[in-house]
Design brief:
alpha/beta, 17 helices, binds guanine, single chain, 6-stranded mixed β-sheet, TIM Barrel, 9-stranded parallel β-sheet, Urease, subunit C, domain 1, 2 domains, globular, Guanine deaminase, binds fe (iii) ion
Length: about 425
Amino acid sequence: ANIAHFPKVSTSPKDDLIYQKDGGLVVKGDKIIALGEYAAIKAAYPDAVTIDYSNKLIVPGLIDGHVHFPQTEMIASYGEQLLTWLEQYTFPTECKFSSFDYCQKMADIFLSQLVANGTTTALAFSTVHSHSADALFAAASKRNMAMITGKVCMDRHCPNELSDSAESAVSDSEALIKKWHGLGRNLYAITPRFAPTSTDAQLNALGELAADYPDVFIQTHLSENLEEIEWVKQLFPARKSYLDVYAHFGLLRKRAVFGHCVHMTDDDWQSLADAGATAAFCPSSNLFLGSGFFDKANADKFNVNIALASDVGAGTSFNLLRTYGEAYKISQINGAPIDALNGLYMMTQGAAAALDLEADIGNLNPNSFADFVVLDPHFNDLSTLRIDANAECADILFALSILGDERCIKQTYIAGVAQLGTTNSHKESVNA
Ligand code: GUN
Ligand code: FE
């Protein structure tokens, strides 16, 4: 296969890309052990079982930096912006997750959607119910997938059935941390939904919990929608900005990921950068809910970590290549086009680095987990017409980001095991 990845964590994706034409990738157990020119790889590993992916393009498994697993079924819900969309569609849907059976069923469907689209790791919101996080961790464990999730915490401005309290948010979250964080490839994220749905007491208690677990993730929403931002001002009059609410309660740090960041001041960007925190760029969602245009050029100026994200169910596709295609269109409006290698970086190594997981995922370096995707640049007539046999990596990725869908995902490997189609499990070794 042709193989593309970023071996280094860097802010200059173009220079750091390795693009190996006619390459070979060797997998042993759940890890990558070698990568290089096919003939040399074949000579070095003569006994390896070979899987032929000629004319395909292998890239690292894609990382979704912000997504809601319970919202899978409510994708493409018409007509509202953020706050009314939450009331009309989101909260009623999330109420269904009071049933553990329902959580299990939807967790499997969600993971099927991820792997069909080449996504091998996600930072996902569950619902307020602890057992929703249990269900997602259990389903991900069956696939040996690096899943990061947490139960949502909210104790106001939501239906009673979806409300916890400051105390139960902490005790339930801590029980889940002890049960799942670091078990297999599972990782926990403390998950206050967003500032308006938590009391000061809850945010404060979650900040204290976060301090006790410095390597646990934090995920929430930030500065997505103008009405939301006004509401936060009214609810927290003492805080100098929306981000300052999170900072004040100890929820701004490394491994904290803030969804959206659409309406940001330079001070906000500087604070995110200083903390080593991450902005999740959710272009299809920001368009779908009419939220606004993420300013990647400005985020880059401040050196803020960025992870690309689907944000399904407000996002319109699980496919991160397509999501980059939407990011490209927004960047054109902003007058600073994001090229395809930056796109690939934001969904692989860049996202992994932002999440502080680059030792394990986001690249194809020996010793990293064998999480990778086989793309088919000629998956339909139009892509075959558009992408000729000699096309370069950036051009292939760009065309697929506009034309592609799950048909261009030929295979998705997680920890060395093929996830799509047949029950093939290539446990011994794979090269291509
Ligand atoms: N802000 C608070 N909750 C949500 C949510 O579920 N989706 C989005 N897009 N924004 C939010
Ligand atoms: Fe979201």
